[in-house]
Design brief:
The structure is a homodimer of 482-residue chains. With 482 residues, chain A is of the alpha+beta class. Helix content of chain A is 37%, strand content 21%. In chain A, the strands form four sheets. In chain A, strands 12, 13, 14, 15, 16, 17, 18 and 19 form an eight-stranded antiparallel sheet that branches. Chain A has a five-stranded antiparallel sheet with strand order 5-6-10-8-9. A four-stranded mixed sheet of chain A has the order 1-2-4-3. In chain A, strand 18 and strand 19 form a beta hairpin. Chain A is globular and about 75 Å long. The relative contact order of chain A is 0.11. At the A-B interface, strand 9, helix 7, strand 11, helix 8 and helix 15 of A face strand 9, helix 7, strand 11, helix 8 and helix 15 of B.
């Protein structure tokens, strides 16, 4: 480490306190990504306690970088480190500071009349959900990592999850932000307003920017009244087209009460059956796809059940559902959700696979899957497809598993590039996105130029260079400057 | 006009056709704003037929401006010219081109399975609503000017209206955009995706930028299933606090079915009674405020009525409603809405007043009104307040009318600055916004620096200079560069 960097670290120690600047010992909790695809090295892990400390740390780094433009210094903001695209861990240079927001975890305020809560970036999603519930309200963002991921990370990556159908992505649940800019200034934008047309919407720019434009330190979030009943149903559908038809029918019947619509392919379910023998699956063997529906009712359990049963009856008459069950109680409902949420782990137990987090318009869903399945089968005979996802949002986790008997590591090494190209080209042809909810990070940064409009990319680049001209904030993530 | 400008105009004529470049005759439909506060002069009114023509016109202007930086040339994008903040009409220099999107009015596609429609910027809002309805779907954006305003203008200004409570502002109804940049490039971002995390959300940057960063030429919009019943109720409430309490109760009872919650002050209603003697108002004389509620039900008329009546019963038991009626039929419902929507015209008939379009958190609503009313009464004894607005969104049209007997023009001339300062200072103190839904335009551009965070303003400025370095697009609107 250069003498100048020593001085910088000493200054940072005076800002956040010696014990909150980690440089030694096992730092892998911060330097290794959740899926363990990347093992980086940090100049230091810095854990500030409040927005003022964040601002002072960033300001010190900004001044240092201006004085030492070739130092390679940069800042990687990090929340719960559960991201899936290697966007919040340092690279191998040892010149990146991991700025962890974990200590900033306070729920600053719940405003029940305004239906908002203001929380710090390091607040774990589940804690935010619980504090809302304690006030009799609902913060509906929900995803598998909710026990570990943080609000700051959720917003930095514009997280999706299972409730997007009704409530939108993380950005749609946010009314205001507090942000530390790459210069170390603080933007106090913690508005609780549902209408504010006084200039460019900066909030939406920072959300989903994955820490490349500044550091989100707190947010004001939307809350909703708690539903009176949440009912879950499981339906067997005879085809992808039928699943799309069922979605349309469910939207007509349930409208805003439809809070979940998850598709699961037969092979994906067979993996759950194989690797989780404690879970009792509803019949799935004789149907290509199953759908999990959730109805969050504002009236009563009886009303929710009547609504859901009327929908399923209609669907069976029309032929888009061949068999269905409605969960009788909370335990049954939880089991159905557990089956859905066990798919990622079940496929991990089956061996490494090539993951995609793609979206297409719902109207192109069936055509996309048919087209891509056929291309892959032709390129790699016997290839197995773990299809599941949030059909209601047009979002599919279209994962590709090696043919039976082929070594998974070899498959990944030899076929990943080809498989990605086939899938991404098909996504593009069907008007879709190669990253629906996980983001870009460093994992997809070099794919983007092939699949995103050059006008969009150059506009993004102009914004990045205007707001962070020295490229201090999370460089090499989302976009490259040269 | 300089010879160079003559050459530019000739080039534009070859792009869009001679008949679509207007330079003579009465151009006031394009050069005068809707409220007739500003009478500008245009170098020309240019009416391109498609995105390609828009791009070529902008490109020609960009090249001209680069060659003639002192020419004062700029472009003012315009839709239906119904804006309220003088943001889409030219200034007095005669060097601004009004680029009217009126000829680009096609609904390009309705995708019923994806619940989206793609429309051109010049499409009138009402036409978009009708085309959605013809497909059995609902485009819920709704506002007084809907027969004249355009989708491009709605998005450029992030329009609000009466359905924000349930569906959000215009930005929340948009999935993708087609935009011509200040360089004359076309960003094809007409995505129908509900999830796309591939970089900065440019769509949200252009929406609400009032044409200062580029020209929106088309958009993909969200559609919803049509409700089975839409019921309207009218409630007398004993205080502002009671109105806020009723809102919370209505949100619990109706959740997403609550699509309207409009507050009207007694004085505002008395103006309607005075100037619209054909309208029969429900009793309002013995109550300080009335509330209009709308319940868009997904089941049936009977269900909607039961829900609404249960809510009102609860509210009367709690004392936050003293009297209420539920419209018996569509005609009655329309009359109730007509009363609400006649307030702006009624106050116009009463004489000029000082208008504000402000928002505060719902939880600060009552305190804001009490505080500001008292300050104004102290400053201008006898001042009359026309309070009405979208309480559900925290948005109030807090308009200030001269005391009885005082000349309205004199009042405006002598008191406007003082009244604005009192109201805006109070808005700021209550965590609100000085422009909730109308935007900034040129009318509020010089207020903004006093009421917006300097960090936000400098970030906005950096973005503007990065994307439009020569300040071609709608200069002097939203923000000043120097």
């Amino acid at each position: 480490m250069s003498p100048a960097m020593h001085i910088l670290l000493a200054e940072i120690r005076t800002i956040v306190g010696n014990t909150h600047v980690l440089t030694e010992g096992d730092l892998s909790a911060w330097t290794q990504d959740w899926r363990q695809r990347s093992h980086g090295r940090a100049l230091a892990v810095v854990r500030p306690a409040n927005v003022d400390e964040v601002a002072r740390v960033v300001s010190a780094c900004a001044i240092f970088l201006a004085q030492h433009p070739d130092s390679g210094l940069s800042i990687v903001p990090q929340g719960g480190n559960t991201g899936l695209v290697v966007g919040s861990t340092p690279d191998a240079t040892g010149r990146q500071i991991v700025l962890s927001l974990q200590r900033m975890s306070t729920v600053r305020r719940v405003d029940t009349a305004n239906l908002t809560m203001t929380v710090e970036a390091g607040c774990i999603l589940q804690k935010a959900q619980e504090q809302a519930r304690a006030a009799g309200l609902w913060f509906p963002l929900s995803l598998a990592a909710e026990g570990t991921c943080t609000i700051g990370g959720n917003l930095g990556t514009n997280a999706g999850g299972t409730q997007v159908l009704r409530f939108g992505n993380a950005r749609d649940l946010c009314l205001g932000l507090e942000v530390v800019t790459p210069q170390g200034d603080v933007w106090q934008g913690l508005s609780g307003l549902r209408k504010d047309n006084t200039g460019y919407d900066l909030k939406h720019l920072y959300i989903g920017a994955e820490g490349t434009l500044g550091i989100i330190t707190a947010a004001t979030l939307k809350l909703y009244p708690l539903p009176k009943a949440q009912l879950t149903a499981w339906a067997a559908v005879p085809s992808m087209e039928a699943a799309v038809q069922l979605l349309g029918l469910a939207q007509q019947h349930l409208c805003a009460s439809l809070t979940g619509f998850e598709l699961m392919g037969q092979f994906a379910l067979s993996l759950v059956a194989r690797h989780f023998d404690n879970l009792r699956l509803p019949p799935y063997q004789n149907t290509p796809f199953c759908v999990l529906l959730e109805n969050a009712d504002t009236e009563s359990d009886v009303h929710a059940r009547n609504q859901l049963e009327a929908l399923l009856e209609d669907a069976m008459t029309l032929g888009c559902v061949t068999d269905a069950v409605v969960a009788e109680n909370l335990t049954q409902a939880q089991t159905l959700w557990q089956i859905r949420e066990s798919i990622p782990l079940a496929q991990a137990s089956e061996g490494l696979n090539i993951k995609h987090d793609i979206s297409v318009p719902v109207s192109a869903f069936a055509a996309f899957v048919a087209h891509t399945d056929a291309l892959l089968e032709r390129a790699i005979p016997g290839v197995r497809l773990v299809n599941f996802g949030h059909l209601g949002d047009g979002n599919l986790h279209y994962n590709v598993q090696a043919p039976v008997g082929m070594d998974a590591a070899v498959f990944l090494r030899e076929q990943e590039a080809l498989v990605n190209r086939i899938v991404f080209d098909s996504v593009l042809a069907h008007g879709g996105s190669i990253s629906a909810e996980h983001g870009v990070g460093s994992l997809k940064v070099d794919h983007l130029p092939h699949y995103k409009s050059p006008v969009a990319l150059s506009t993004m680049r102009a914004i990045k260079m205007a707001l962070d001209p020295n490229n201090l904030m999370n460089p090499g993530r989302v976009l490259r400057l040269s």
